[in-house]
Amino acid sequence: MRCPGFQNLLWFSKLGKRRKVSAAFSDGVCGHMEKMLRDKLPGGEFTDVPPQTSKVMKAVKGTGNASTEVRFRFALVGSGISGWRLHAINLPGKPDIVFPQRRITVFLDGCFWHGCPSCGHIPKSNTSFWTAKIDLTKRRDYRNTRRLCALGYQVLRFWEHNLTNDLGACVERLLKRL
User: Fold this and answer.
1) Among 43, 67, 129, 140, whose Cα sits 20 to 30 Å from the Cα of 87?
2) 51 has pLDDT over 90
3) Chain segment 96-151, per-residue pLDDT in tens
4) Which neighbouring-strand residues pair with 155?
C-alpha cells in the first residue's frame, strides 16, 4: 500500500543512496545526533559566525512560527474547518495539525530547515554541518511519514513558500482529503 503522503517526500530519494538511520536518532535532538553534528564543525564549535547571524539564529523558535503555523490556523478557522488539534505529542514527528477523527496529519515545513528543493539552501559558512543537519531532518521527515502511514494516517506536507504564495490552494488541498 502506498502512503498518501509519500509522493511529497520523493525528494528524499534524490539524496542518493539511502542509509539505515540509527534508532538513536529520535524525533527530538538527542546526544548522539548532536555529537555527530558537532563532529562536522571545526573544533566542535561554530567559528567565524558574524554577531548578527548568531543573534538571528538564537531567536529562531521551534514552534509557534507566526509566519506559517498561525497563518495556516487562521485560514482553517476562516474556512470553517474544525475538528483539528495542534502538535499531537503522541504521534511520530509531532504533526503541526492533526484531524484525529479523519486520521489526517499536516506538517508545515520551513523551506530552510527541511531542505526545500525549490528554495532551500545551504549556508556558505559551516557547510558540512548544515548539509548534515538538513539531511538528517529530511530523513526524520521521511521516517515519520512512513510511521504515520503505517498507523493509518494520511500525511500532508506544505512547504513554507506554498503557504506564503498560495495559502488558499493549501487549504483546498486539505479540504479534498477531509
Assistant:
1) 129
2) no
3) 999 999 999 999 998 888 999 998 888 887 788 888 889 999 999 999 999 999 99
4) 105
pTM for this model (two decimals): 0.69
Give the CATH number of the domain where residue 113 resides. Answer: 3.40.960.10
User: Does residue 52 fall inside a structural domain?
Assistant: no
Q: Please report how many Cα atoms fall inside a 13 Å half-sphere around the Cα of residue 71, on the Cβ side.
A: 16
CA angle 76, 79, 82 (to 5 degrees): 55
Which triple of cell numbers denotes residue 14? 534524490
| Average pLDDT taken over every residue of the chain | 77
CA angle 20, 6, 9 (to 5 degrees): 65
Residues constituting the chain: 178
**Ordered DSSP codes for 131-142:** HHHHHHHHHHHH
Yes or no: say if 171 and 79 are a contact pair by the CB < 8 Å rule.
yes
N-terminal to C-terminal alpha carbon distance within the chain: 20
